[in-house]
Every structure is written in structure tokens, then in C-alpha cells.
Amino acid sequence: MQHTSTTSTTTTQKTRLPLAGETRSIKTDVDIEAELRAFEEAERERLGLKAERRQWVDNMLKPKMTKKERENVTLLISGLTAAQDFLCEGALKGLGYNVHYFGMSDNAGLQTGKEFGNRGQCNPTYFTVGGLVKYLIDLRDKQGMSTEDIIKNYVFLTAGACGPCRFGMYVTEYRKALRDAGFDGFRVMLFQQTGGLSQATGDDVGLEMNPAFFIAIIKAIVCGDTLNALGYRIRPYEVEPGATNRAMESAKRILYKALYEQTNVFKALYEARKEFEGVRVDKLRPKAKTSIIGEFWAMTTEGDGNYALQKFLESEGGENDIQLTTAWLLYNIWECARDTRERRDLRGADEGNYGLASLDEFGVAKRLATMRLAEGALRVGFQAFALPLGLFDYHLPDMELVAEVAKDYYSNDLRGGEGHMEVGKLIVNAVKSKAHLTVSVKPFGCMPSSGVSDGVQSLITARYPGTIFCAVETSGDGATNFYSRIQMYMFKARILAEQELTRAYEEAGVTEAEVRAFLARNPKYASPLHHAPHRVAGSAANLVYEVAPLIKQTAAERAVGKARAAAGALRDAVKAAPAKAKAAKEFLTDPETLARAREDVALIRDIVGGKAAERFSPLVKRLAGKAYFENNPEVRHVSHGANSVEPIAAE
């Protein structure tokens, strides 16, 4: 019996090694190396690894779409706010493209991203990659479409940036996840930010990056910005829950139709305005004004990617002050201008990829003039969209001010994430009473934003006492901790808003009943579109300060007060006239002013001479790329074709 047991043990050693503590007799002359090799061979056989494996090669480095494919290929888009993606779909469809916005990534997309993506990515990557893969899986498994047809008839349109996240290596994440999910060869068209949105040139290009394309995209983005800003301004004060969301959906359909049919978008904005005018509001509710800043994707997405942060803040008694894509464009223009100024003295020797060596004697001057004109045009253009919609008294940030207040705490030359803007925005919020609470949201492990919000901002809050600042991270599965942390800070902010409103009543010498009676008699001030001039952070307190003089004084008294104020302003102007005249003379004779004037004249001469398209095409392409396609700052660019557009600034 003992001999049989020994023989059995010797036989099975070909497929497994003795376990620790196992009681059995083993020959002392066993070749351990041979046994290990035998065990490895057996396991390879069992796992199906005996066959020769071919190394996977990424053959999708330069995907493209031809004109023949244009009628059959659907461009998939996603990545900005729901309103902007929806309107971009309409704008591109109006140009003849088949476009489909497949929705904002949810937690199911997150799980798909984690299943097919590499470990250790940040959740914007998991959400965006996973959302795409999940949509394709649903096409295959739920709608019965073959994998070959999906690969042939769909293209995902996005772009990369040169952010530092994971050293910009996420471009392969899309391909890796798509390959592992069974969609090897699916086209993800990534465009190079510094080279504009360009693919292979020629007559067979299916995605034409012409002026009409960029104008349509920018219209959709700015329309979405104004809709979002107005919606977040009205929603906290609505009397009937859900009324603002219904108005938002109706307004989006009106604008979608105008963009698709390429009709007058300003008329459509005015029609959309009527939808919001029907929302009944109570503007005297004390709401904590909450400024949302942080990593671009985390602060702009509106779904599971940031635990529906905006909706949660409103449920906790907040009024959201969101960051618009248009403001990001202003930051891009500021970057171009600053970098060009910083490197202008190196023009002859600066031969780097983003250098100025290729510019002629007046090239730098013209570029700076272009930046000034572009900033002015963007600001005026935004107001041209905002006013017909009813978004009154909305001020885009002053990028020079933000940079100036931040430079002592965070270098203006560090561009990871939002660069110095996170620091500058918090300081401006504190000094100018722009918000009761500032929330910085970023993905778990986001190095640029974490370095600011968890490091530099602690110094800012110490330097500016009374500032309420909350830094939170999103990982996709930590909603409870996320919400509880925000609730602690929202409690403080709500108390601050209530105290501010009480102080406004006392300082203005009116009661809540008097103000409500006045609003009932003067519905203009109770309109959902009315926005009181800024004095303090809270909208309700600002309204009290605005209407109190109208309640306490007669029309004659108000007229006398205005006349006295005008007279006082005139006296002050007369007294200050000599000093101002001297300062004006110094400004006009300053060499830098004269140089800037010559730059502007040269730019205008080019425009009058018919060179406007040549001058502004690189800028428009760059801005449109950042605004619409830059939904993954971690993704590295892929250049399509040898003919790339010249960069417009030294970055």
C-alpha cells in the first residue's frame, strides 16, 4: 500500500509541485529545474498558450476618412457639457456630416473603461474611453450590428493636448481598450493641437476643416455656454421644480434647429429667451454662491464623472458659478500672447518646435496684434450671443488680472491643468466677493490640479482669512466621502449667505415684506432674466441693495440724488483732469504704446488687403480644437499628414 502511494506521487509531479507542509515521500534525486519546466509546459497547455503568439502592432497611427466614406460614416462625439455636445451635433449635421452624440459617460462606462483599460489611469480617461467602448459594445450585442460594420461605419472624433498627465501617453488607451473589446482597427481621429485640426490634405479628405466647419463649431460652443450660464443662474430660484430644465430642453431644440438649418442663430436665441421668461422665480432666497474650478473635464462634465456635482450643490442650497469654455479660449489667447512676448527677443535663435525663428521682422508684432484683436472679438462675440438669450450683466474673466494676482504664488509659466488660473480665480473670488464658496474638483491623482488645490491654495486661504475653499477628488466610486466633504463646507457657505442677506436688509433700511411688495408691483425686477448689479456675493442680497433706494425714495428724490451724484462725479473729473492729461501724454508717447499702435495698423492693413483668412485661420483652428475636441487633456496628439498648420504662438 505504501509503495502504491509513492508511485502515484511520482507520477503526478509532472503536473504540479509538492505543496508546503504536504506529507509524502519524495526522491532525493529529483531535478527541480526539470520539474519546474514540466509544470510550466503543463500550465501553458492548459491555458492555451502553447501556440506561437504574434506581437500586436498599432496600425492605426494615421487613421483617415475619405470623401467616399462620408455618406456612410457616422462621427461619434462626446466630452463637453450636454448642451454643447447636443448643439455641436446639430451644427455638424447642418454641414452634411452624419454625427451622433452618444451621451455623457456614466458609471457603466466607467466600469467598461476599467475592464478594458490599463490600471492606474485617472477617471476622465476611464469615463471617456469606457463610454466609447460601451457604446460600441451595445451596437454589437444589443442592436446586432457586426463588428466589421461598426469599424467601417463609425469614427470617434476627439483631440489631444500637450498636458503633463501620465506624460501624455493616453493616446494608446483608446486603441488598447478597443482592441481588447474586439474592435481592433476602429478609427479614433485625434488631431494635433499645435498644428490645428488638420488631417491628410488632398481631394479625397472626408473631414473638411474649412471656415464653415469652425464657424459652426464655435457657434454651437458659445450657444451652449450661454445656455448653461443662464440655466445655472435661474434654477436655484425656480418656484416650480424642474421648470428651468424644461425651458433648457426647449431652448436647446430651438437652437439645434437653427444650427442644423443654418438659419439666423441670433433670432433663435431670442426665441429661446422666451422659454426662460416663463419660469417663475423667488429671487429673495438666500443661496450660497459657489464657484466651481479645477481640472477642466472634472469641472465641466455634468454626470457621474463628477458625481453630478452641479446638481448636488444646488440641492444643498447653492447657486453655481460655472467656468465657461469661452473663458478657456480667453486663456488660450492669453497663453499665446504671453509666450510670444516672453520669447520675442529670441526670434533669430529660437528654432524650437514652438519658436519664433520663422517669423520675419514684423511677425512677432503682428502676432501680438492678432491676439489683442482676437480677445476683443471673442468678448464682443460672446455678448452678442448672451444678450439675445437674456444673459445680462455676465462678465468674462480678465485674464491679465487673474495672472497678475496669481503670479506671486504660482508661476504664470506652469501650464499643467489650468495653470495659474485656479490660484487666480480663488484670489479674485475672495477679494472681489465673487463667491461664498470655491470648490476645486479634480480626478483622483491629478498631479497638476492636486499640486495647486492641496498645496498652494492652503497658503491662499491663510493669506485671505474668511475664504471658504473646498478641494475634492473624484475616483468614480467614492461618492459618499465626496458628498460629505462638500456638505461640511456648504453648511458654512449657507450661513454666510444668510448673514449677508440679513445685513443687506439692515444696511438698506428695508424689510423682506417691503421688498416682496415692491417686486410684486414691479415684475421687471422679479423676472428670471433680471440680474442685480454686483456688490456682494449673494444674488438675493444684491437685489435688496438694488431695489432698496426705489422703495425708500420718491421719484423726485431719486432724480435729485442722481443729479448730485453726477455733479460730484463732474467735480472729481475736473480735479483729476490735469493728472489724467499728464498720464495720457506719457502713455501716448511711450515707445511701447507706439510699437503696439504700429502693430495694430499693420494688422488692419493685412485685413483690408484681403489677408484676413490667412491671418486668422491658424488661430480659429486652434481655438476650435481646444473648445470642442479637447475633452481629454491627457491624450497626446497624433499628426495627420506632413502639411501641418504653422503654430500661432510659442507655447
From TrEMBL:
Region of interest (Disordered), residue spans: 1-21
Coiled-coil regions listed:
32-59
Q: Does the keyword Coiled coil apply?
A: yes
Annotated signal sequence is none
Q: Where is the composition biased (Low complexity)?
A: 1-12
Q: Which UniProt key words apply to this protein?
A: Coiled coil
Q: Which PANTHER family match?
A: BIFUNCTIONAL PROTEIN [INCLUDES 2-HYDROXYACYL-COA DEHYDRATASE (N-TER) AND ITS ACTIVATOR DOMAIN (C_TERM), BIFUNCTIONAL PROTEIN [INCLUDES 2-HYDROXYACYL-COA DEHYDRATASE (N-TER) AND ITS ACTIVATOR DOMAIN (C_TERM)-RELATED
Protein name per its UniProtKB record: Activator of 2-hydroxyglutaryl-CoA dehydratase
